[in-house]
């Protein structure tokens, strides 16, 4: 038996093994999508961004133009925004970096450069400089531990509190 291969025939080759740098490449990239965390059938938070990248090793989702909305008993409570964020799919822990702002429904606002969110404990941490604006108070210092609603907030060191005129 003879097989003739004309111009329409092509040689099928195995795809090359991924280069070392390809193992860290995103497996999917999408715009304006979100990742939603549920507990007992209730929304806990929504992780979204301008551009999301999904990775397999380790399993994570990265976002540019990060927005995370936190909920309590399915009621919106707080929004976190940042230039960049990562959510680890196994633990649902998150990191946010660059112009991080957390603001709750009561108007309390936290500003810093990076945070870590531990999902199981529902706690937000940073060692960076922070500014908290709450009513007519401005509190600054280094290091922060708080809950997503910003109700239980601790600044760890070099705390300075001032009364400010926010009417301007």
Description of the molecule:
The protein is 0% helix and 62% strand. With 168 residues, the protein is mainly beta. It has one domain (28-163): lipopolysaccharide transport protein A fold (Sandwich), CATH 2.60.450.10. A hairpin with a 2-residue loop joins β2 and β3.
Topology overview:
Blueprint: E1 28-31, E2 34-39, E3 42-48, E4 51-56, E5 59-72, E6 75-88, E7 94-104, E8 109-118, E9 123-134, E10 137-146, E11 154-163
Antiparallel strand pairs: 1-4, 2-3, 3-5, 4-5, 5-6, 6-7, 7-8, 8-9, 9-10, 10-11
N→C terminal distance:
90 Å
Q: Poorly predicted ranges (pLDDT <50, ≥5 residues)?
A: 1-23
- CATH architectural group: Sandwich
Give the ordered list of helices and strands.
EEEEEEEEEEE
Fraction in beta strands: over 45%
Number of domains: 1
Shape: globular
Mean pLDDT: 82
Structural class: mainly beta
Main sheet summary? 11 strands, antiparallel
Gyration radius from CA atoms, angstroms:
22 Å
> CATH topology, which one?
lipopolysaccharide transport protein A fold
Strand tally: 11
What's the CATH class, please? Mainly Beta
Defining key terms:
168 residues; mainly beta; lipopolysaccharide transport protein A fold; eleven-stranded antiparallel beta sheet; 11 strands; 62% strand; globular; disordered N terminus
Could you write a compact summary of the structure shown?
The chain is mainly β.
